[in-house]
Amino acid sequence: MNLTTYLPAFQPAHTYDEAVQCINAIRSAEPPDLNPIGRSQFLTHDQRTDRAVVLFHGYTNCPQQFKHLGEQLQQRGYNVWIPRALGHGLADRLTNAHAAIKAEELIIAASAAIDIAQGLGAEVHVMGLSMGGLMTTWVAQNRSDVVRAVSIAQASGFKALPKTWTPLIRRIVLIVPNQMQWWDATVQDKGAGPQHAYPRYATHGLAQLLRLGAALRSQARRSSPATRSVVIVKNENDEAIDNTTLDDQVQAWRSAGAQNVATYTFGVEQHLVHDLIDPDQPAQRIDYVYPILINLLET
């Protein structure tokens, strides 16, 4: 399938009640073997608010990653929807369910979340990290019914892969059998990080992220983002992401005439890890990061 032209039908919720019915149906259909905190999370004021926000979690994490930030946004008046990506949030942290994730499914999930949010708030904002950053960027490119999109460290390229060889590597990885690899082979599943996240990644899963990232850059070369305002966030100390692919995304948009794209960079001197969202990450600095991200979402 050509991801650059793939566009699911938009079905925005017209009322708060309709949006809540969709959320309840999603949560009721989630598998019984989820970690209790791995479920999709809905933080609500029990009525439609002026602003709603969708938060997209990262690959091998789950909605719990964004819950603390979501609570702060709820306190600021937002209704907050944090959907669970397929294959994520399971109680079995050594599952390989996330190996089956497809770029097309991420697009469908991103668009469906925005459809729901239309019933939750008069203005819809979106933010995501890594895989969630890709989903956020897809929304930015394709959804004109969103006020602001903040894409953080989108997983469109990885430092471990030579950039010029990445397209070929991506195609080969998707042809050969999937492999499950430890994020940290030294500690494996005994690390000090969040226990609601998976300690392994699937090579097919990462290749699907690269596939979506390439499609987003291709879309950007052809047209400006549909969303009213977009912020691409880089972390110069990111141990995983090839930040030049984020630069390529921004440059492609600007070459296409985009006037609605801004950037923000966390400097290397801040010593931030890739997952700068999850409070359970070691070396976390959410007291520094969260106010900046909230300001980017609102200004």
Please explain how this structure is put together.
With 299 residues, this protein is of the alpha/beta class. Helices cover 37% and strands 16% of the residues. It is built from eight helices and nine strands. The protein has helices at residues 16-29, 64-75, 103-120, 131-142, 166-175, 203-222, 243-255, 286-298; strands spanning 41-43, 49-56, 78-82, 121-129, 148-152, 180-182, 200-202, 229-235, 261-266. Helix 1 packs antiparallel against helix 3 (103-120), helix 3 (103-120) packs across helix 4 (131-142) and helix 4 (131-142) packs parallel to helix 6. The chain is globular.
- Which radius of gyration do the C-alpha atoms yield? 18 Å
Helix segment count? 8
CATH superfamily: Alpha/Beta hydrolase fold, catalytic domain
**Highest-level CATH class:** Alpha Beta
Total strands: the figure is 9
Provide the CATH architecture.
3-Layer(aba) Sandwich
Q: Output the CATH topology.
A: Rossmann fold
Apparent shape: globular
Helix-and-strand structural type? alpha/beta
Low-confidence stretches: none
Helical residue percent band: 25-40%
Distance separating the two termini: 37 Å
Strand content: 15-25%
Mean pLDDT: 97
- Across the major sheet, the strand order is 1-3-2-4-5-8-9
H/E element order: HEEHEHEHEHEEHEHEH
